[in-house]
Write a structure and sequence with these properties.
The protein is α/β, with parallel strands linked by helices. It has two domains: 115 residues, Rossmann fold; 182 residues, NAD(P)-binding Rossmann-like Domain (Rossmann fold), CATH 3.40.50. Strand 1, helix 1 and strand 2 form a beta-alpha-beta unit. Helix 5 packs across helix 7. The mean pLDDT is 96. It binds NADP nicotinamide-adenine-dinucleotide phosphate. The site of NADP nicotinamide-adenine-dinucleotide phosphate has 31 residues, from helix 5 and helix 7.
Length: 319
């Protein structure tokens, strides 16, 4: 029987799909990643690996596995996997696109609104007993309706965010390496270069994958181009934004605020400088975290694994 290793506890109903045809070992803790030394040992004799974005599947780990044929990543991003090392060994790598697009776009828009209207700060203000009276400028934020939204990376999620922005009569700009003429027409959105987008947007939303090319795509220079009233939203990957530069821009009020679902080193160190600032909302990477979507992601990751190993049906192969 072919052997599989699963790096986090999965729902029973998803597992039963695998148990008939494969021998399964699984790290059974829901809230802790598998330790590196355990993973290194577990991959030695397996045919298939189902992993999460918290697992670093680097060339060293891949070299430990002698028979591995497929790595099924339960995420749309796959920057946790050394693609070169996988390709060299002809190991298939799959992801879970599609099912999490709308859920992540919901969270992106929720974070945009929460940051603009200071929801977390306002709730804490009330709970801390500071609400003594109504006052004219108390906890005032930024308007969303009619504002300009700039989306960097108009892919599946970026496009879904642009659709939500229509409901708020936002003017939407986008920057990609390639233009999407059909989407421009359908959603009445405007293609610009990165510099123009940064200068003109009230909300800058980062939605690219994390690659060598996008690492620190938003740094001191780019933050310097943004409006003082502007808000940066990042629900893509932490490494796309230079956090030190962001901290300085927020601290010096060069930009107005930031909403981040992702951070360069996750989980966040509680001494992280960004946690000292009131004008940033930080979330623990919950973009796709709805019950329905997380279950669907597990289901797709399992289907990728089965189909990849049996050679039947389709899989979501990444480049
Ligand atoms: P996608 O459909 O592949 O879209 C990515 C977009 O980024 C494409 O339009 C691509 O267009 C653009 N892009 C790539 N490289 C670029 C560059 N160097 N400069 C400018 N634009 C660039 O991916 P998606 O499904 O929308 O997801 C985007 C990312 O969100 C994922 O890679 C993942 O890391 C992250 N994500 C986070 C969560 C969460 O829980 N917070 C959930 C899901 C996804 P061009 O190739 O034309 O440039």
């Amino acid at each position: 029987m072919r052997k599989l290793y699963i790096t986090r506890k999965l729902p029973e109903e998803v597992l039963t799909k695998l148990s008939a045809s494969f021998s399964i070992r699984m790290w059974d803790k829901e809230d802790q990643p598998v330790p590196r030394h355990t993973l290194e040992k577990e991959v030695e004799d397996i045919d298939g690996l189902l992993c999460l974005l918290t697992d670093n599947i680097d060339s060293h780990l891949i070299s430990k596995s002698k028979k591995l044929k497929i790595i099924s990543n339960m995420a749309v991003g796959y920057n946790n996997i050394d693609m070169e090392a996988a390709n060299e060994r002809n190991i298939m790598v799959t992801n879970t696109p599609g099912v999490l697009t709308e859920t992540t776009a919901d969270l992106t828009f929720a974070l945009l609104m929460a940051t603009a209207r200071r929801l977390v700060e306002s709730s804490n203000y009330l709970r801390d007993g500071n609400w003594k009276t109504w006052s004219l400028m108390m906890l005032t934020g930024q308007d969303i309706f009619g504002a300009t939204l700039g989306i960097i990376g108009l892919g599946n999620i970026g496009e879904a965010v642009a659709r939500r922005a229509q409901g708020f009569s936002m003017k939407t700009l986008y920057y990609n390496r390639s233009r999407k003429y059909d989407v421009e027409k359908e959603l009445n959105i405007i293609y610009t270069d990165l510099e123009t987008l940064l200068k003109e947007s009230d909300f800058v939303c980062v939605m690219t994958p994390y690659t060598k090319e996008t690492e620190h795509l938003i740094g001191k220079e780019q933050l310097g181009l943004m409006k003082e009233s502007a808000i940066l939203i990042n629900t893509a990957r932490g490494g796309i934004v230079d956090e030190q530069a962001l901290y300085e821009a927020l601290k010096s009020k060069k930009i107005w605020g930031a909403g981040l679902d992702v951070i360069e080193k996750e989980p966040i160190d509680l001494n992280h400088s960004l946690l000292t600032l009131p004008n940033v909302i930080l979330l623990p990477h919950i973009g796709s975290a709805s019950v329905k979507t997380r279950t669907a992601m597990a289901d797709i990751a399992v289907t990728n694994l089965i189909n990849g190993l049996t050679g039947e049906g389709t899989i979501h192969l990444v480049k």
